[in-house]
Amino acid sequence: AVTTGQRMHLQPLPAFEDNYIWLLRDDGGRALIVDPGEAGPVLAALADAPAPHAILLTHHHGDHVGGVAELLERWPGLPVIAPHDTRIATANRRVGDGDMVEIGPWRFEVLGIPGHTLSHIAFCSRNAGGEGLLFCGDTLFSLGCGRIFEGTPAQMLASLRKLAALPGDTLVCCGHEYTLANAAFALAVEPGNAVLRERAAQARAQRDAGQPTLPATLASERACNPFLRSNEAAIRASIETHTGRSLDDDIDAFAELRRWKDGFRA
Ligand code: FE
Ligand code: ZN
Predict the structure, then answer these.
(1) Contact 48, 204 (CB under 8 A)
(2) Residue 59 annotated to the active site
(3) Which ligand is the nearest neighbour of the Cα of 115?
(4) Which ligand sits closest to the CA of 60?
(5) What does the longest C-alpha to C-alpha distance in the chain come to?
(6) What is the pLDDT of residues 20-42, one digit of tens each?
(7) Cα dist. 96→105, 112, 119, 123, 134 in Å?
(8) Rg (Cα) of the chain, in Å, rounded?
(9) Is there a catalytic annotation at residue 116?
(10) Beta 31-34 vs 54-56: how paired, if at all?
């Protein structure tokens, strides 16, 4: 069942060191482009394809928006759908939390997910005949989460909870191939998690075979990702051992877990 539905229409394009630009194609090969940090990989992948439907942007960082201007030269008038943020000058349509975006055969709900940046959004779809899709930029990674650059730990935790509440078969399409490094940290935090061990081994095999570790299902992330599990007793105990003090509340636990990861070297 893994190759049914949307998965066969999805393609993570490697960019820079460890970014993914996501392409989602309809039955006629027309693409939707998500977070094109550079244009080259997109132009190469779509050389023989019909003109794309649109570009979706999750947040303003250069490694997610840097290729837009060049793609607009190739396809003038292409819709560029982005969060309300003046730092994204190339956008021509703005969306925010709760908005619906219809593009070709897809219908996306926009989710405001501040934390990594304040204006960060995700695009979530659930179409007939396929799993849900979640384009979540640098907020939720497989086995990890983004650094908190502009928001607070409380905002980031609320954003991750919003994503974690989506259906379990949702395919998580995030902006970076960080899974192996994240797995090393996740195993340090929760060594007794057998499902995590299995996922870490799978990710290692995928990378050894030159394949992406993404997309991952949200069900797998809920079972393995420590940042979606910071309230589990075993994880809280781990955080308390690491910090050497008892934790106040959920936000304290999450903030300390994120801080631990910031300084972690496998
Ligand atoms: Fe990024
Ligand atoms: Zn970013």
Answers:
(1) no
(2) yes
(3) 2
(4) 2
(5) 59
(6) 999 999 999 999 999 999 999 99
(7) 21, 6, 9, 10, 15
(8) 18
(9) yes
(10) parallel
